[in-house]
Specification:
- The protein has helices at 4-32, 36-63, 67-76, 82-90.
- By secondary structure, it is mainly α.
- The chain has a domain at 4-18 and 45-89.
- The two termini are 19 Å apart.
- It is found in: Cell membrane.
């Protein structure tokens, strides 16, 4: 069963993995040529991203998100710090 609590955990992990990938992995790869963090974090982040999007679709009607709220929640998955904003603004227990 998909719950808001599980979605919040995935959102947190997706946000952290994205920040690590963008903030540490990519600069390390581009400035030193060492791509170990990109290779290590890339797949888990991709899986978390896909899980986030799928869970958002599954929770949309249950949480009674408007189309605007749903669109914002989805866009938050591609913005740095976006999932943290979505958690604070839209993923609170109603």
């Amino acid at each position: 069963m998909i719950t808001l609590k599980n979605f919040k955990i995935i959102a947190l992990l997706e946000g952290i993995s994205y920040l690590l990938l963008l903030g540490i992995g990519s600069p390390l790869k581009h400035f030193t040529g060492n791509d170990i963090l990109v290779r290590t974090l890339g797949m888990p982040h991709g899986l978390l991203f896909v899980t986030y999007v799928i869970m958002a679709f599954l929770l949309k009607s249950e949480q009674k998100w408007t189309n605007k709220e749903f669109a914002i929640i989805l866009v938050c998955s591609i913005l740095p710090f976006g999932t943290f904003y979505a958690d604070k603004k839209y993923l609170q227990v109603k």
